[in-house]
Design a protein that fits this description.
- The protein has 6 helices and no strands.
- It has a domain of about 120 residues: Four Helix Bundle (Hemerythrin (Met), subunit A) (Up-down Bundle), CATH 1.20.120.
- It has about 170 residues and is mostly helical.
- Keywords: Metal-binding, Zinc, Zinc-finger.
């Protein structure tokens, strides 16, 4: 056997072992790591009645939170520390009382701040109701589940995107 004959045999053997696999039906190469094309879900718009119901829910929550913020402001901002402690005598009161009152005020301010953030989210959701984009995730543009919207009508994201944002540290809810 000469050099060229040996080389031809080796090349034929090499071709056989390294051929691409093909599917039987269509003779197209089979890719082991083929990525399936994601089906693009069409964004469904909510019906007018459904939007009306969510708008009513949002307005009710807005009213409750606004009332809560006003109540906190009335209780904490309009009273001095002496009034808040209930001390009516002219004597100074104990340092522990001052610390407790300060803690209570700080706690109330924290709640009011959190309520203001929710109020902002509710107003944004009401704008989306008017725009016709309410119920769609702001991240992936897919429809947010009705269960989630009922539990948290001012939400901006679907569960999947919310979890992803929380992992990244960009939580907004």
């Amino acid at each position: 056997m000469n050099y060229n004959e040996g080389r031809t045999k080796v090349m034929k053997k090499h071709k056989k072992t390294h051929q691409k696999k093909t599917s039987v039906r269509n003779k197209k190469p089979i890719l082991k790591n083929r990525v399936k094309k994601a089906k693009l879900e069409k964004v469904k718009k909510m019906g007018k009645q459904e939007l009306k119901g969510y708008k009513k829910l949002l307005l009710r929550q807005k009213e409750l939170i606004t009332g809560e913020i006003q109540h906190i402001a009335k209780d904490t901002l309009n009273k001095s520390q002496k009034d808040a402690s209930g001390d009516i005598s002219g004597y100074t009161y104990h340092m522990a009382d001052v610390a407790t009152d300060t803690y209570d005020r700080e706690f109330s301010f924290g709640i009011a701040s959190s309520d203001r953030e929710v109020l902002y989210d509710i107003n944004e959701a009401l704008k989306r109701v008017e725009d016709g984009t309410y119920g769609n995730c702001l991240e992936c543009d897919k429809q947010i589940s009705k269960k989630r919207l009922t539990a948290m009508p001012y939400t901006k994201f679907c569960i999947k995107c919310q979890k992803s944002l929380e992992v990244k540290g960009k939580s907004s809810e």
